[in-house]
Amino acid sequence: MSKKRVVIGMSGGVDSSVSAWLLKEQGYDVVGLFMKNWEDDDDSEYCSTRQDWIDAASVADVVGVDIEAVNFASEYKDRVFADFLREYQAGRTPNPDVLCNAEIKFKAFLDHAMTLGADLIATGHYARVRHDGGKSELLKAIDHTKDQSYFLHRLNQAQLSKTLFPLGEIPKTEVRKIAEKLKLPNAAKKDSTGICFIGERPFREFLNRYLSYKPGPMMTPEGKVVGEHVGLSFYTLGQRKGIGVGGMKEYKNPDGSSDAWYVAKKDIVNNVLYIVQGHDHPWLLSPALRADQASWVAGEAPEARALSAKTRYRQADVACEIAPEGASDFALKFMEAQWAVTPGQSAVLYDGDVCLGGGIIA
User: Fold this and answer.
1) Do 230 and 336 have their domain in common?
2) Catalytic site includes residue 47
3) Residue-wise over 195-229: b if at least 16 C-beta within 10 A, else e?
4) Which one of 64, 120, 280, 314 counts the least CB within 10 Å of its CB?
5) What pLDDT, on the 0 to 100 scale, is given for residue 326?
6) In the UniProt entry, which residues are flagged as the active site (predicted)?
């Protein structure tokens, strides 16, 4: 019997590298695929693609798998980046990783892997898949501190039925240990954070190149102008740093201290940015939300019931009730008001460890 062929996305990072080794240990015929998703400024100091490819190729060498590079930059531009810019231009704060997983890593990549004769694909994400009577479920990783099911919530049955997540059962600390033991060239490489095409570069400078924007008034809830914003796209709800106000006498406490200012609301029509003082200002708290563009792992919305949700990645699950509204919209009601619920981000639903899917906060 011939071995099952698994094509794994290798990014040059430690997670996908160890995943490739684990699959080989499990007896699969493993092929590595390095995805190039961005090429607008490859030569800039912030773009690590060239180094990542070198790392991925040297790991493939150590692990003993073939690797090829594939260019998805035009698909990425059309399906992920264009949407990212549209959302920012509209004053929302999108999460490109969610779209990248749905459109590139588990669509363009999956299609390409099938042309290479793959039976299955794999990535270094921290998540698990459970197959149960012809249905595939997406589960949180055993290591909850690293769980990435939030970013994978748009995956469907067809995608999950062909996907392996070798790191789902393993704590991150163990992954580093394996990398050191194997003497992988990238064992000590730090994890990439942030948005893949922006890297470590200053965000505002990056957006400046692509978006038109105009400055406007910064106001308090009472309608008092306290400053000028540089363009609504550059602010996110709950933001505290970089607002550029502070130290105004009339907003100080009796003891001379003053509460921090936060971005609370964007009025797109009138180009006004509203800011409030104090972390727990009522304008920053939401008892409910509406979401659209829903995507459900099982193929249909969960019925109205008590579940838990995340409205941002680094957040504990919070109790909520879902009320589906038509095919692609739903409402969530929280038991406790949630802080800085941000349009454009994903609201992802869970039933215990099972990720049910979610939508874009409207």
Assistant:
1) no
2) no
3) bbbbbebeeeebbeeeeebeebbbbbeeeeebeeb
4) 314
5) 84
6) 100 (nucleophile), 196 (cysteine persulfide intermediate)
Here the CATH number for the domain that contains residue 301 is: 2.40.30.10
Put simply, whether the predicted model's pTM sits higher than 0.70 gets the answer yes
Q: Domain range for residue 267?
A: 213-279
Domain C-terminal end among 279, 298, 319 = 279
Task: For 105, list phi and psi in degrees, rounded to 5.
Answer: -65, -30
Q: Is residue 67 part of a domain?
A: yes
35 is an annotated ligand-binding site residue: yes
Dihedral sign, Cα of residue 157, residue 162, residue 165, residue 166: positive
Does 253 reside within a domain? yes
CA gap 189, 13 in Å, rounded: 7
Identify which of 239, 234, 240, 231 has the alpha carbon closest to the alpha carbon of residue 272: 231
Sheet holding 272-277, edge to edge: 225-229, 216-219, 272-277, 261-267
Residue 124 is labelled as binding a ligand: yes
| 133 marked as part of a ligand binding site | no
Q: With CA atoms as reference, report the closest residue to 84 among 250, 196, 9.
A: 196
Task: Let me know whether 269 and 290 are in one domain.
Answer: no
pLDDT tens digits for 151-196? 999 999 999 999 999 999 999 999 999 999 999 999 999 888 777 7
As given in the structure block, the two tokens for residue 358 are 């979610």
Q: Is residue 309 part of a domain?
A: yes
Which of 259, 279, 299 is the endpoint of a domain? 279
Assess whether pLDDT exceeds 70 at residue 42: no
258 is annotated as contributing to ligand binding:
no
* Residue of higher predicted confidence among 206 and 30: 30
What mean pLDDT do residues 299-326 have? 94
